Fold Lipoprotein.
Amino acid sequence: MRPTVHTLSAFVMLLSALLLASCASTLGPVNDSLQKTQYAWAGAIRWGDFEGAWGVVDPAYRAANPLTDLEMERYQQVQISSYRELASTADLQGGYAGRDIEIGVINRHTLAERTVRYREEWRYDAIDKQWWLTSGMPDLWQGQ
């Protein structure tokens, strides 16, 4: 008995569904971890917890680019009014993700508001099962 085209098509579709399900099951925790980490990061920035946000920055980046007390003090001079994702990309198998963000920034002294664009770059540490921000803290003073 020879398989028909319909039987082969059904078999290929079933196999594809099983492969997708296996990929989803192995990458599901990685994706969940990314979403939780990005949510925590956005919350820290949005509510002015810049020290907490600094803890999400890649340890290698922090070691190479330590924040000075003066730089941290500058972050205390602003209020974040909005934090909006404009676009995102992710290669979960490659351990990479990126997001384009628009941040509303209010100067606490002048009450002047402006928007800043920022590109987040994320990498996944498979050993620690942790996502790290590799692009550093947002430059809230660009163009000033």
Remarks:
- The radius of gyration is 21 Å.
